[in-house]
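Translate sequence into structure tokens.
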Amino acid sequence: MASMAPSAVLPPQFQFAPAVTPGDSGDCGRQETRRRRDGFAVVETLPAHIDNKRGTSGSPIKVVANYFRLLSMPQCCIHQYHVEFTPTVESSRMRRALLVDYMDMFDKCLVFDGMSDLKSPKRLNQDITEVFPQRRTDGKIICVRFKWVQELAPFNPELLRLFNTQMRRNLERLDFVQINRYFFDKRAVASIPQHALELWQGLVTAIGQHDAGVLLVTDTLHKVLRRDSVFDLMSQIQHVPNYKNECVKRVAGCIVMTPYNNKTYRVDDIDWDENPACTFETKEGSKTYADYYRMRANVSVMRDLAQHTRVEPSKRVRNLLEFMDRINNNDAIRNDMDSWGIRFDDSLVRIDARVLPPEKVMQGSNAYRYSAATADFSRETRDRPLHVAVAVESWIVLCHRREEANVTEFVRTLMSVCPPMGVKISQPRLVLLDDDRPSGFVEALRQLARAGNIQLALIVLPNNRKDRYDLIKKEACVDLGLHTQVILARTIGNRKNIRSVATKVAVQLNCKLGGEAWCLEIPLVSTMVIGYDTYRDSSSPHRSAGAFVASINKSLTWWYSRVSFHDTHEWLGYSLASLLRDALRKYSQCNDGASPDRIIFFRDGVSDGQIPQTTRVFSHFVSTGDDAASVLEV
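Result follows.
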């Protein structure tokens, strides 16, 4: 855990930007009065009574972080424009191409995000300016409208957007290749011929405001590409029995990448009735698959490549320093950044940090501390009773008939590892299916649930087909209210690791049925911890699903969970108050009528620009005077 030195200044965005008086616009020679925001306030997230965020426990240590400091900010005024294309142009690459001939309008100094946001030190003479470039692909005239939005005050959060857009341009100038959201260095591709794999090294970057100023955070990431294709894989197994079933088993659920556009797709199934001569409809009309796919398909897979992807700290530091050296010594990038007045430090940020002592882990009547060097306590947990063990009495095992031998051996191993953990487990009922289609598993679950009281269903699937997994989980969790543990057949097919797998499954079964594997010593008594996240509902583009979890006991091992649906613009959702109220009622039921003294709320993915909105949601909730809100501090 690290903390900044006490001499670090408060971030500039926590202050009001000074108003600009007439004649002091600073717009590179323009002196007339501008419509400029006199200032903007960013919500302070640090409580007023706290002036120091540094702790005292642990031993001091000096470390470097994967951050580079921004040494200089733009000195001239930056203008923001909204760009509209009529008719609509979907391709961001085409949008950029349409603006190339109009760079001189902005004195060749602009940053365009490829969508609708453009920033430049140049103020156009009119608030709305229209140009009419010709699209080269079809000769069509496109109306491009530049609408002046605002002149950005110093430390306006929009400047961070400018910096991040410029950084993406920098990566493109370094010949990085964008695959989905991330950029990869095509000069840093490692070949692993013994596995027919390629390892692409990339970078993820983000520029944001921190206690020590504006910093660029960088980190390495990797993408593993198989050098063979799906066709190669099918050719290798063409002589095995049940060839078609084996192909589906190997391919279904995999992610494939088409290298001609660097896009990835999930394989759900194989249509054996189609062939490369068959046609499908495109925007240009009917095409055969053979005409459409002119390049070999690579499959993006994740394998155990720890020796390549787990970079040791010294090499990671060296990679980041080399990256910044390439940024600062590239002529095109330096010219771009000089025109904005942006410059990054050559060195990584140094921090005074603390190494915290290991946590005390409690497991039943035992308490122990793990090794801080490895942060692993799996060895200490072995051959000890779980913290709270439950009995597994009425359960079933559901699998396809061809997996019977492996499943029987796995169940035998599972029943042998449970007693030392304190878990009493009865012999399960083994249900064999002749059909491994999703509907076969679902119908079997329905019949078994109607037949009697089932505590748990352990389901063995032939592969990781997403539609089958989703359908089973929906039926079991939503419709039947049945605890399930899903395992892939290949996971239990390796006899060498079967005992380790069985041990991990036993721990999961115990926890799913209300038991506890272990717990930590929590110094904050009477505390509720909440986690909340949202996900765009793929079945309804105008709706989001919210996932809510809240701890309901003092050791943070029991959790209350809910799902809510709401319009995407509601973000945190009006349902939050109802969810929190219900969670507090559940907490009270489990704690003899007591309420928590404090609530710690975790919300993943909140950017700096969303902090004011988040605070407004909680402030409104607290201001309602609801008893459920009285313990929540914003």
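Note: The CA atoms of residues 485 and 509 lie 7 Å apart.
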